[in-house]
Design brief:
5-stranded antiparallel sheet, 7 strands
Length: about 170
């Protein structure tokens, strides 16, 4: 198991926590390192415990620690591009989360997947994206969401947190 401190903001839900204050790692910049080395250093484990995914998520490889925790390790520019792509691919998730939150409904988008499966939701996403493109445009939605600081909510499925470490943005996926 990888070493990360945890805090429990809500009963029964663990959230990853990096004890290094944001920005402290930027005071002593080093030579560029690979994402594997960056993640290993961030987690306090050997680089041998980190593996790169074979596929890509939002255009970038994920990195696994011991095969049980997954992370995106991105530069600032890559994080921005990944978030833009994620918003476009997950409009249905954003819509459902917004509806559930607005009306105080105790449900999650994963409940929809269990109820009807992924395939119908892909079609819903395409239709929502078409509506957005014909009204305000996807670029407008994406830029507004990111201006409001939603990048961690979009990229960090596990804890909705962005960890800044050695000029990288780290997002825990699971």
């Amino acid at each position: 198991m990888c070493h990360i401190d945890t805090i429990r903001p809500h009963p029964g839900r663990s959230v990853a926590f990096n004890p290094t204050p944001p920005g402290d790692d930027l005071l002593n910049p080093k030579e560029p390192q690979s994402q594997t080395e960056i993640l290993a250093s961030f987690l306090g484990v050997s680089a041998g415990r980190i593996t790169q995914s074979t596929g890509r998520l939002y255009g970038y490889h994920a990195y696994y620690c011991d095969g049980i925790q997954a992370y995106l390790v991105l530069s600032e520019e890559e994080a921005e591009q990944a978030a833009q792509k994620a918003i476009s691919e997950r409009v249905w998730v954003i819509a459902l989360e917004s509806i559930f939150e607005y009306f105080g409904i105790d449900a999650y988008p994963s409940d929809a997947i269990e109820a009807i499966g992924k395939e119908p939701l892909f079609h819903v996403n395409d239709e929502l994206r078409a509506i957005i493109n014909r009204t305000c445009g996807m670029e407008t939605l994406t830029s507004r969401m990111l201006e409001l600081g939603n990048r961690p909510n979009i990229l960090a499925d596990y804890d909705q947190r962005e960890h800044r470490y050695k000029n990288f943005c780290i997002y825990r996926l699971f």
